[in-house]
Amino acid sequence: xxxxxxxxxxxxxxxxxxxxxxxxxxxxxxxxxxxxxxxxxxxxxxxxxxxxxxxxxxxxxxxxxxxxxxxxxxxxxxxxxxxxxxxxxxxxxxxxxxxxxxxxxxxxxxxxxxxxxxxxxxxxxxxxxxxxxxxxxxxxxxxxxxxxxxxxxxxxxxxxxxxxxxxxxxxxxxxxxxxxxxxxxxxxxxxxxxxxxxxxxxxxxxxxxxxxxxxxxxxxxxxxxxxxxxxxxxxxxxxxxxxxxxxxxxxxxxxxxxxxxxxxxxxxxxxxxxxxxxxxxxxxxxxxxxxxxxxxxxxxxxxxxxxxxxxxxxxxxxxxxxxxxxxxxxxxxxxxxxxxx
Length: 341
Known about the structure:
One of its GO terms (cellular component) is periplasmic space. The strands form four sheets. This protein has an eight-stranded parallel sheet. It has helices at residues 4-14, 40-48, 110-113, 141-155, 168-175, 179-190, 206-214, 238-241, 244-250, 274-280, 313-323, and strands at residues 18-19, 24-28, 53-55, 57-60, 66-68, 91-95, 98-102, 160-161, 164-165, 199-202, 219-224, 256-260, 284-290, 328-331, 339-340. Strand 13, helix 11 (313-323) and strand 14 (328-331) form a beta-alpha-beta unit. The chain has one domain (4-59, 139-340): TIM Barrel (Alpha-Beta Barrel). By secondary structure, it is an alpha/beta fold. Mean pLDDT is 93; it is low at 16-20.
């Protein structure tokens, strides 16, 4: 029987000292372990903590402005459900085969959306973040870029953008909103070029292929999960896409694979074949998502018994991923500068 403790010790030794250095740190929705996700405050804190990239999930408003939310459904991350003036906007929609009830960004103009306030998405896990509920607006992509440039000027270092297109096929088919067109148009307006530190990611295939054809060289990332498949290719499974044959196909339009940690490490903590197979296809691997709370960590990396407890498990997990060969990790918490024994 495999002893996970021995594997853990070996991997940590390979990454000694236990720190997340020399690997891209992608701030997952900003410093989302410390501030409500996808707010300017979360992005700024992540930059201050040393993140190399910040990751805004992008959705579109009714008047075709790109804003940052985890999903196009708004009630999980804003106070829209408590706003009587928007009660009549509540809808039932079928998104990627699932029925979803709520309020959706594409049914609001930017001006209407700006009256809402962000809230913590998982207050039971991150109650300290809930103290910031009601303070922050939903940011536009333009505002996020303005923040990044201000922080670059203040710090003298480059800070990358790692946007994800959320539900692009659904928006194209149901609302006629082409997220690829919107993103490329906004990038042109903002003066963002492929020479800038930018990765564009999606769980779907067609938007990345269109970006490959029309995007002029932006680095593209195919997201993959342990189960399911791309919404725009119902017959395709992510499990097929991470085989050597599947990765060779992905490499025709993407530069990297954004893979769930379970596809990179076994339950015992040993590396899978994914990184080596991806490298053979000409792809790098970025792993998602490293989170600091015990609830999100494998048992061997937890500190104490409190589900919300935090220790050094996230740093150790990042080090294991580094030892497994990933080029970057998505992280909810600070990793740069933290060293654990």
